Structures are given as C-alpha cells and as structure tokens.
Amino acid sequence: VNVKFTALLLGPIIALLLFMRALMGGPWEWMGFTMSRKRGRVGASLAFCLVAMLVTYAAIWASYGFRFAATPGTGPALNTSAFARGPQSYTIGTNGGGDLNKELDAFRRAAPSATARALLFLEDHHLFPQAWTAGMVYSHAYSMFRSSFENGNIKLRGSWYYFPMAMAFKEPVATLVAMVGAAALFMGIAARHVARRRSNPQPGMSPGVWTAACLIIPLTGYLVALMASHLNIGYRHALPLMPFILVGIGVAASVIWQMRAHVGRLAIIGLGLALLAESAQAWPDYIPFFNTMSGGARGGIRLLGDSNIDWGQDLIALAKWQNEHPGPRLFLQYFGTADPKFYGIRYFDPNDEKSPPMRNGDVAAVSVMQIQLYVCSTSKAPFASLSNLDPKPKQVLGGSIYLFWNDENDAVSGHPASK
Fold it and tell me: I want to staple 174 with a disulfide (CB 3.0 to 4.6 A). Which of 130, 275, 313, 328 is the partner?
C-alpha cells in the first residue's frame, strides 16, 4: 500500500477468502494448534485481519518516518484540498474537445467526491501521514477523468468494458482460446458437482470449491474495480488478473491431460505452439503487441492508445535509424518525457515557430499517440494530414514511431510552411 494504492483491494479480498475457508469443514492446523470448531476458525480469521491491519498501518507511518508533515522541520504543508478536484490547468486540446472540456469544468466546479472527502477527513485528524493521504487524493482525483483513445474516439471518462476489450485485443489468440476452453471445462465440472451434491448431500465444502474460490474471488474483485475505474490508459493495469487466469488455465490443462484423450492433448500442444509462434513474431517489440485477430501492431493504432502501443519506447530505434540515414532532416512529433537529444537525435520540433519549413526530402517522425490523440483531432496540429488513423508510412520503428517522407509524390502536409 506504500507502492500501489490498488493494494488496498487485497484487504477485503483476503478477508473474504479467510472467512469462507473458516466456514468450510475440516480442522485448521496453525502454529501447533488445531482449531476444529467453526467458532475458533472465525475468531482466528478476525485476529489475522486485525493484525494485518495494524502491521499495514504501522508500515505506512514507518515509511514516512512517523512524521505527519510532508516535509521535515518547518517546511510548507501540502494543500491537499486544492487538487481534490483534479488538475486545474488540464484541457482537452482537440477540435472535438469542446464538450469534453465542458464536462471537465463541471467536474472541477462540483463538490469533492465522497472518497476525497473521507481522505481529507483522515488528513485533518492526522490519522495518516499527510504525504500518503495527499497521494491518495491526487491519484483519486486524477483518475476521475483522463483523455484516452478507444476505437477511433477520444474519451474523457472510462468505459466499463475497456479492460475486457483490451484483453481481447492484447492477449495472444492462443491464450484467449485457452481461457474460453478452461472456463467451459470448469463450468461443466461445477454443474456435475452440484448435481452430485443434490443427489448425495454432504456436510462442509469440498477442497475443489476452496481452490476455485482462491482463483475466482481475487480475479473478480480486481476486475470489478477495474471496470469501475475511469483510468483507461493501458492494459498493463489489468495484468494482476493474469496470474489467476493462467493458473486456472494450467489447472484445466492438467485435468484434460489426465483424461488421456488424444484430442485434448493435441489441443494443448497446438495452443502452446500457437502461443510460441505469435510471441516470437512480436519479438522484440512487445509493448505495441496486438493479437492477430486485431490486426497486429499496425492494427492497434485504430483500437487503443497510450501504454497499449506507445509509451515513448522507440527513441533508441529512431537514433539508430538516423545514424543509418544521416542525410534527411528530421521533424519529430514525439510522445514521451525523455529528451530525444540524450540519444543523439538531431531534429526540429514542428511545434516550434522557429523551426525551418519542411522541404522535399525531409522526414517526419510521428509517434502513434500523437496521431491518435493530437494529430487526428485538431487541424491546427503539425502533420494534420495523418488524421484518418490509417497513415501509410514509409517505415515504422518498433511499432510506435511512423516515418513519412516529404516529397512531391508523398507530401506530409500540415506543417505551416511545408512544401
């Protein structure tokens, strides 16, 4: 919880699992003690949750030196309430951003959310270090709205279906097929188990129910939190789901393999080979990976943005390309925070009024995110001719930087003085 605030979801998930296990039949063996009664197991669960909460609370204070103030000594205090409504200077700078900016202004004028008010209460009463509660308020406020690219549209608020959709785009086809197959297998096993229990009732829960709960409850709890989130900027936020899904696939594969059915074993081997082939095809550019059904990395530009495809990762590839092609002048429209000059890239910024006009033979290097969020949505941006989301570059570097030549046959228009 000092590294990722989403770790707070672990508390209710673990508590639910513990109490579910306490209600199951069978004794608990713990530190030399045997708890045979349900009351003892529930009490042990309560005790564990209490200890976990106290240890976590102490760890939060310890991480900030048991100091409430954000800075030592007489340093200034954080004005947490100032950013409880999100960034005040943030705007959606697009032609179609009028309605989005109105929505953004309405959010800023509204009273802070119940979550923000609860966090401000914790800060006012010094129940947590100010830097920790301020970080929580900041993260919450900034996650309430965030411009994102989704299926050719720019959105300010998240969609409940974003992460399931991103999984369908970003997971290899073999993994998706295995997920569906495993789910079908488990549903069939569960149906047979329920039928047997009805015909032959037995006290307590079977071990299989506990195994299923350990996979399903964490997965479902985190997925619900994701689908309620408005921070739709990358499938990477859903990656904590994958260990549970992959373990479930492994359990299903083990069950099928033990059936000794040749068709089932051949299907497992085939899916493994398909996964290997699709992964090898994507190497080494895994960030912009989109599965074959989604059109691969080149198809991703029309589907999802941000860290799904472009996280500013290909400046090294651009530097290598420029070293191999030292002749053309380079005009760079880059998405990221790193300084291209650090990598030795020599370029002109098309947004800089002091930049010279483009001429025949010059090269425009444009990041995917610039095409999606900025270029495709405002005619005033440099290289606005790329606004159809189906650009035809002469070369793509690493899946995220598109290169266009400015010549008589393939002009890159949009720069104020391009020829």
Answer: 275
CA atoms within 13 A on the CB side of 274: 16
- The single-letter code of the amino acid at 257 is W
Q: Which helix (H) or strand (E) holds 129?
A: none
The token pair at 339 is 């300084």
CB 306 within 8 A of CB 369: yes
- Alpha-carbon distances, residue 258 vs 174, 255, 261 (angstroms): 21, 5, 8
Distance between CA atoms of residues 283 and 300, nearest Å: 16
Other residues' Cβ atoms within 10 Å of the Cβ of residue 246:
14
Q: In 3-state terms, the chain is what percent helix, strand and coil (to 5)?
A: 55, 10, 35
Judged by DSSP in three states, 64 sits in coil
334-387 per-position pLDDT tens digit: 888 899 999 999 999 988 888 888 888 899 999 998 888 765 555 455 665 565
The letter for the amino acid at 227 is M
**What is the token pair recorded at 274?**
């398909």
For 226-282, how does the pLDDT look when each residue is reduced to its tens digit (9 = 90+)? 998 888 889 999 999 999 999 999 999 999 999 878 999 999 999 999 999 999 999
Q: What is the pLDDT of residue 191?
A: 86
Q: SS3 string of 285-338?
A: CCCCCCCHHHCHHHHHHHCECHHHCCCCCCHHHHHHHHHHCCCCCEEEECCCCC
Task: Please give the Cα distance from 287 to 343 (Å, whole number).
Answer: 20
Give which of 371, 393, 380 is closest to 351, Cα–Cα: 380
CA-wise closest residue to 241 among 219, 262, 226: 219
User: What CA–CA distance (Å, rounded) separates 345 from 333?
Assistant: 13
Calculate Rg over the CA atoms of the chain: 27
Structure tokens at 63: 């991480």
